[in-house]
User: Fold these one by one.
Assistant:
Number 1:
Amino acid sequence: MVERCRGRDPGSKKPPAEGTHRVGYGSPPRHSRFVPGKSGNPRGKPRGVLNLKTDLLKELNSFITVRKGNRTVRIKKGAAWIMKIVNGALSNDVKATATLIQLILRFDLMGQIQAGEEAPLTSNDKELLADWLQRQLGDLGNEAPQAADNCSENTQVQRESRK
């Protein structure tokens, strides 16, 4: 037996008896809940509706006409935007420079040294290491130059092992 009700009955906090089902707003009769072949969201997102990312990519890939020197050239808007940022950075525009630096860092365009590799040592690295060790170990006196020699020997060994 199906019990029909309109709205909520605030006084009734008992669950329905066995074999009965409350029918009302938000709980349709069980026999007609899911009809085969009918969508559960008939007015959902229509096909072909674009989102923000798709719209942005479409707009950046559209062409515009730009003057380069004495002639006009058709280029994509994204390429024109990058040209404008680079030219602005070259003409000392602070915001364009900051944007360009962020793009370079984001796409790792500087060819940074890999984590496992060491930077090549310059000719005065031994003196710099000795000076730094002497300042760091100040009280130990003569041990700093010996430590610098050990560092330079280890560096030479590492260089030779790579070759």
Number 2:
Amino acid sequence: METDDLLSAALEIRILTAVTAKRAMHALRRRLNLADKGLTGLQYGIMQALHHEEQTISELSHKLMLDPSTLVPAVDALERKELARRGRDPQDRRRVPLSLTERGAEFVTCVPALDDDDPLVQSLNAMGEEKAGQLLALLREMVENMPEGKDIMRRVSLMMDAHAARESTSTE
């Protein structure tokens, strides 16, 4: 592929992934608004990450690939809404683990990250299983080839494992 064609393809991929991400966030906001808790997508993502294990801001930052300064106000808001709490580590006073409250855990269980009405789910369904699988494989390959891509894919794999664990416990 010529350099101009490659740059054009990269720009179009950037635009298309931004549109996809925007539509996915809109669908999540719709589900969160229906639940009437006034949560942001970031706050919900933090709650998802805390659902099965407590974590520090630093651990969340690494897992969610976000700067700690972005997470602190969101965690503060979750604490004010009594959906999450900061704890104490008896072995290390400097470590402040975060966990969900009972209300927070209930909320995460009741509000799915995705549902059948989600435009991403509908689009993948319309593409069919084979094409959806090919798209996923190509996206994984693209991310792996980025700087730090293998590390990013390891973190994505951990997030997917955590999601699968949540799904298996919620269906039992």
